[in-house]
């Protein structure tokens, strides 16, 4: 079994065999402490994670949601509403929810389709290309800009900062690799990252009115409802959460279309565009886990989780649990119902951006299905060195057009 605390265990992709073994033999698994961090429990079965999600008063988000141990001071400096529990969480969630609701996002559909058409057409001008760079990256970036209401010319910069936050364990994305260099001076910043400082400055400029944002964007809508540090952390959350996850889901879809026999033809039947996005996102499960902290002693699988212990909910493992999904490692585009947990379903923090992510993926899939005859891998994908995010860094691919 690979050590889940070690980011290097993920450099060749998610260690799905380890998760399968844990689901079978060690459904409540303890990883001992390591340099700079306390040990943690792992939950890997769908049913157990769902049960934990339902009781946030027992498995709390209010002491941090990543493996890292934070002092109370650090937690207070960096927290967003994602790091709070009901009823406190519910107040902010209600305030921001309308901006992400399905009907609001559906209004973006014509724009998303237009952008997807343009991006896929440009990407396919080359016979062989890196599908992350040429296709998967651009649509989430442009849509993040529209949702936030920031100018297009800032997007490249914002996205590289977001990548540095999410990829803070991989030298591909940052010089300040969290487990390799001393990040003490950034401990009060999002993801202990210098990119957090730069994003705070940008958010400050928005708050002061020095950076103009569009009236109908989220930043303008929540300005006034969320203030000061809370606004800055909310901004960082959106830059981090709203971009890479969708990019990696699109990349995983393209990877599977290039490698799973007959999948592109199945997609081209045109009957599964409603269900296919969820199936690809289930298999991508880009946010591998989120952490909770036990608020009381709890018995599970013959062991005791003590109050104060960290408990990781491995959504990536739940998404491939054979007790919840038939043929769990294969993409079945017509899968319905598909109650996967890649969006953290079952708990109060279920992803706010899921309608947007699904719409973007669907638009890309439709363009690929229309234009491409076959997709082939040119080289294996490269993966982010991270036990938090399943990131496809590069995906060299060859496309034969219709
Ligand atoms: C395929 C793409 C995406 C995946 C797989 C994903 C995954 C997740 C997961 C697992 C959670 C739950 C976290 C927890 O339990 O603590 C979450 C929450 C969240 N996501 Fe996403 N996400 C995606 C796209 C997006 C997008 C596009 C946005 C915004 C534009 C977004 C914004 C958020 C926010 C704000 C939360 C916090 C909600 C809360 O705490 O109430 N996500 N996401």
From TrEMBL:
The family this protein is said to belong to: Belongs to the cytochrome P450 family.
Domain of life: Bacteria
Organism: Pseudosulfitobacter pseudonitzschiae
A GO biological-process term: cholesterol catabolic process
Key words, A-Z: Oxidoreductase
Gene Ontology molecular-function annotations: cholest-4-en-3-one 26-monooxygenase activity; heme binding; iron ion binding; steroid hydroxylase activity
Name of the protein this chain belongs to: Methyl-branched lipid omega-hydroxylase
EC assignment: 1.14.15.14
